[in-house]
Amino acid sequence: MKLEEVPQEKKNFKDGDKAPQKVLYVTDNLGSYTQTNSAGWEAENVVLEQAWEEIDHQLKVAMQQVRNGKCSPITYYMIKNRMDISILSSYVNKWQWQVRRHMIPVVFAGLSKGMLDKYAKVFNISTDELKKLP
What we know:
This protein is mainly alpha-helical. The chain has two domains: 3-40, no CATH class; 54-130, 434 Repressor (Amino-terminal Domain). Helices cover 51% and strands 9% of the residues. The chain is built from seven helices and two strands. The protein has helices spanning 42-67, 73-80, 85-92, 96-102, 105-109, 113-123, 127-130; strands at 22-27, 33-38. It has a two-stranded antiparallel ribbon with strand order 1-2. Helix 3 packs across helix 4. The protein is elongated and about 65 Å long. It starts with 21 loop residues before the first strand and ends with a helix. The mean pLDDT is 86.
């Protein structure tokens, strides 16, 4: 792609102009490779908007499930931090089945302070914040 062909279509969702731009490698007028920033193009921005809407929806569902006692706050914070079971289990150094078990409210209530601290550290929140929803 040439420098003058780099798409610069503004994002018209949440972050708008504040949304981070990505770096693309393009050729300049002399045919040399160079870096430039791109705000993206319409198709990409539409897909990103849909993805963020899906994450927001998943967060609302998880929050309601935690409030209804169907799952522990770990579920909510995992989604909020855009993780899945595999990623979270590797960060807390537990098997995936153990993390799934920790998502059960009764099991979560019995977790040790050390285990709660591990989850809190991964989610970059305090242990007290982990025990409740925002």
